Amino acid sequence: MKIINIKCPNCNSQLKVDKNAEKVKCEYCKTEFLIDDEIERIEIHSSFTDEAEVKKWEIKNEISKRKEKRRIRDSIEVWLLMFFMLLLGSGLLFNSQNGKETISMPESAKYYVGKDYERVVQELEDLGFENIDIKENPDIVIGFVSKENTVSSISIGGESNFKKDDWFYANDHVVITYHVFKK
Question: Which is it for strands 131-140 and 3-7: parallel, antiparallel or unpaired?
Fold first, then answer.
């Protein structure tokens, strides 16, 4: 009979066991376990945690950590996507289409009617419009209804009824017609 020293996998007590024994019971905590000579391992047969349960816990813990990392990564991706969509929607990220610069109108067409045409031309040039034509409208006889040199109509890219925040290309044709006295 050959005696080997092993530790109880449950309470860690030192035990002396016959190497040929198949089954051992700890005299301190009463845990029963088998000794398997062929693969030299101890299996616990009790209600206490064994290696398999520890391994399961480690795997679950690792999966939980991976899920948390994935959740954080997904959350960051969603926030970045929303940020870029906001930039794109506001025109700050890309302000051109097909290589053409675009301009968002700060006011509607109605806003410009009745304003001094030279100031309107300057404002549109400051916005970036490149193709502005001005035309006289000799419709003033006495000057009570309309003032001289004020805008009677405006069109951008053929659109004379544009609204605030409408988009146009910088090279769209702008036509500003203004009131003058009949000759």
Answer: unpaired
Q: In this predicted model, what pLDDT tens digit does every residue of 4-50 receive, in sequence order? A: 777 887 888 888 877 777 788 888 888 887 765 433 444 433 434 55
Tell whether domain 100-181 is in CATH 3.30.300.30: no
Q: Token pair for residue 141? A: 């006889």
* pLDDT (mean) for 92-119: 81
CATH code for 3-48? 2.20.28
User: For the whole model, what pTM was predicted?
Assistant: 0.48
At 123, the amino acid letter reads E
How many whole angstroms separate alpha carbon 150 and alpha carbon 180? 8
Residue 106 φ/ψ, nearest 5 degrees: -80, -15
Domains of the chain, residue spans: 3-48, 51-94, 100-181
